[in-house]
Amino acid sequence: MKTMRKESGFTLIEMLIVFTIISVLIMLSVPKMDHLVEKKQIDYFIEQFKDDMLYAQQYAMTHKSSVVIVFYHQQPVYRMMEGSVFGRILLQRSYSVNLQIQPVTLQSPLIFFPNGNVNKSGTILVTYGKQTYKIVFLLGKGRFYVQKL
Fold it and tell me: For this UniProt entry, what's an example GO CC term (predicted)?
């Protein structure tokens, strides 16, 4: 005759309670990453924007033609064209809808002349969440700088 042995082990309820406790502890120990994502998003945009402006300046000087940069406020996009607003599109850059480009003293379009100078000086504010950057274009060889506010 076979005897039934009583095997010891964990019940399903005990396992679920342990997994619940472990998952709550993990959720509490992992820091919130929202602010890091926000910072990286705007940092990436600023770096890309600086590279695009330098590209526009270099293109204007090497091809001996003006480069026009138009900021579209209805859409999250800016466009770089050769010669005029209706010229050949050199670059069209989209960015996050959460990111806002606000012209303060610099009105669209921004033009790089064949000698590398900009048509006018001015300031643009770039805002993403709680972070704001000021981009200032100076007269003379298209110089500009970015300042975190």
Answer: cell surface
